[in-house]
Amino acid sequence: MKLIGSTASPFVRKVRVVMAEKRLDYQFVIEDVWSDDTTIASSNPLGKVPCLIMDASEAMFDSRVIVEYLDTLSPVGKLIPQPGRERAEVKTWEALADGVMDAGVLWRLEATWPRRADGERSQAWIDRQRAKVKAGIAAMAKGLGDKPFCSGIHLSLSDISVGCALGWIGFRFPEIDWRGEHPNLGKLYDKLMLRPSFADTAP
After folding, report:
1. Cα dihedral sign for 149, 98, 113, 125?
2. What CA–CA distance (Å, rounded) separates 101 from 29?
3. What's the pLDDT tens digit per position in 78-103?
4. Overall pTM > 0.90
């Protein structure tokens, strides 16, 4: 398998962490989708990463689709429960974390995209996305409470998704003091960073 992505993308990191936890072999191909000479559209018509290329040259994209598929490839470290309430809970955690990352990406693009003049940037849009990021992080902290992991007592895709979101927010928006506001999330992230899968994929 070949994974096309960037080291800074939190969605790519989610896939890489799952790959590591599942002990799957793959080739990592760095791609800058914002470059004028990017070739990502030949694999993903949406021009986004991550994109997983299988042995038969078939492409799979969207991190949620990819990690669901990867979890079926090996019995090692099952990360997504079987269909039912527990599975829905894990996928809801993933949706929450992805939503935080989506809002953060929109915030950053509005504030920094070089092809938009300063006068064209919308502070109201930036504020709206920032509010989503902060509300999402607060919801993560409330949902985690004093539990050792987001969904029960073992690592799952819930924790991987939340960890990737928090790591990226800390990387791109260091002014957001999510650790100070939510110590339980800081404790969870520190625990995740002890795992090679997280330590080796930090943005």
Report:
1. negative
2. 22
3. 999 999 999 999 999 999 999 999 99
4. yes
Q: Selecting from 3.20.20.80, 3.10.50.40, 3.40.50.20, 3.40.30.10, what CATH number does the domain 2-70 have?
A: 3.40.30.10
Pick the CATH number of 85-199 from 1.20.1050.10, 3.30.460.10, 1.10.260.40, 3.40.1060.10: 1.20.1050.10
8 Å CB contact between 60 and 66: yes
Q: What is the mean pLDDT of residues 6-33?
A: 96
